[in-house]
Amino acid sequence: MKKVVMGNHAVSYGVRASEAKVISAYPITPQTHVVELLSELVANGEIDAKFIKVESEHSAMAACVGASAAGSRAFTATSSQGLLLMTEMLHWAVGARLPIVLTNVNRAIGPPWSIWTDQNDSLSMRDVGWIQIYCESNQETQDAIPQAFKIAEEVQLPVMLVLDAFFLSHTYEIVDLLDVEKVREFLPPYNPELKIDPADPHSFGNLASADYYMELRYMIEEAMDEARGIIKRVGREFGEHFGRHYGMVVPYRCDDADVILVTSGTVASTTRAVIDEMRDEGIKIGALKIRVLRPFPFKEVSEVLCSAKKVAVLDRNISFGNHGIFYQEVKSALYGKTDIPILGYILGLGGRDVTPKVIREVADKAIKDKNPEPYINWIGVKK
Amino acid sequence: MREARIPTDEIMGSGHLACQGCGATMAMRFALKALGRQTAMVIPACCWSVIDGTFPHSAVDIPIFHTAFETAAVTASGLKAGLEMRGDHETTVVAWAGDGGTFDIGLQSLSGAAERNEDIIYVCYDNEAYMNTGIQRSSSTPVGSWTTTTPVTNYKKRPKKNMVDILAAHEIPYIATGSVAFPEDLIRKFHKAKDIKGTKYIQILAPCPTGWKLSPELTVWAARKAVTSKVYPIMEVTENGNKIAVWKEFEPTSFKEYIKPQGRFRHLKEDEIAKIEKDIEARWQRLLAKEEMLSSIPGL
User: Fold this and answer.
1) Predicted interface score ipTM higher than 0.90
2) Distance separating alpha carbons of residues B118 and A304, to the nearest angstrom
3) Nearest-CB residue to A71 (from B75, B82, B109)
4) Which end of chain B lies in a sparser environment, N or C, as judged by fewer CB atoms within 10 Å?
5) pLDDT value at residue B70
6) Given an 8 Å threshold on Cβ–Cβ distance, is A55 in contact with B109?
7) How far apart are CA B144 and CA B266, in angstroms?
């Protein structure tokens, strides 16, 4: 059934279709609609789940940890400061190997207070051990949720789905809503082998000496590596069921491109419009959207980018002291594979609009720029 | 205090990692005897994260989920919801935390769980300081006490936080305090808590010989004297925080006798002891007055 829904509600409908059993959340702008609709759907029986209305985001993740340890499918949503407050429990979910799904609406971090989008909140959780998937449209956002549960439950790692504040969260688009029955064929009920069960008592997470700890970390990395194949397979299977296919990256007019712009989130769609405009002018330019940040798609990224003469990475985030984060990631993916210039551009922080004009400015600059210098290229900053 | 039969089932094994004379270990043994094997437990950072044993061993024959310091009550809330959604409505879910994880860092999530009236038993085994990290003061540390962060030259001047009143303000169905010196009473309280729906809070005085600078064979002695000297009243708060029953049928003993073998109070001078004694009596009288006052209000 097609319906015009806001990005946040696309998340809620994705959770409904995935039949999450325990939802726990705390309100924060611009995520709040996600859990408002979910609490309504739980209250009126459209979802057979328990909704735990906790007193903080830290507790929201802790409740998910408890529920998931009991063997129930658990979901939460948050944003910015809320995600930061969860940090400790995000680590806990990974170490305990719990397949929790979280939606993070990308919002800039204070101070100064900002409710508008940038990626520094989710990217500061890059190294925690969560699989991270960046969404570009409301449809993609909804579709990502059952995929996320399927991936998470297979590799026993949590998955974070990320969408831009306001540009997606509050924007209405047509979404083909998922049918619960049909999703059930794609995503079987969660029934883990190991769980909290008095009939089969185990102690989870107790003190581990140096004889064991490292092996447990090794197994997390193994699972993360295994996730590369599983994310692709699940994206294909989703396509077979619902007609919409998903992969690790989305190249656009890259085959003969001299310059490729690397993007993520909603900037990707704006970029494609600019690519079309420039192609019409005869400029050989393409775009590569990175959908999955963890595990990082080294192979896919280098396969696409190595054919170009120049790469420009657009970062809606900044790692103070070392470029944008996607820039670092792309650079490490291409290390030793090519010697083409890789240029980094910082833009759109704190919700500053990344319009076609801004992207055209980056593209023109990237065509002109020769080396990855100056150190960081700031776009549109008032100095 | 009525007698209760002590179940013979030993759910806690002897191969645990506690110090000699550990009160927290006695508390767990009694609690599990009452609760039985259809129990799942959440343990945040505390002595019991170590006592349980190192991977892949556990001293306890029920499922245990170790969680972060400040999350005992909420992880237990999630666990209960998760079990119920799997169709398990029978398992008793217990949060088992120390006083630091209850009075201090875990208070927020405990308050949240109590306000929602989550169907869990929250147990605080109270050894009156951060014993696992090496005896630092918590807000449960009693007035007059030495700890490594309240040195004798600047011992703890503020009274122990009143968690019972804080929990009572949440209008939860059952609150009790107890002491490892009175196992029958503890077991009766756990039996009772198990059959009540909603949030149950049980706080157990569990002396720590290491932190109290007490000879290990005196754990039970100190746990008894704390009650009979009125330092640690044992009581039940029922009817959603509106009825208090304080146990009074004991031969009173002195505070001075209670603290004598405890190194943590050794620095106290006579006048300081007298002042604390006076405050203990005043607190006791206020508690009795409150019990009386609440009993005089007819229920709705």
Assistant:
1) yes
2) 52
3) B82
4) C
5) 98
6) yes
7) 10
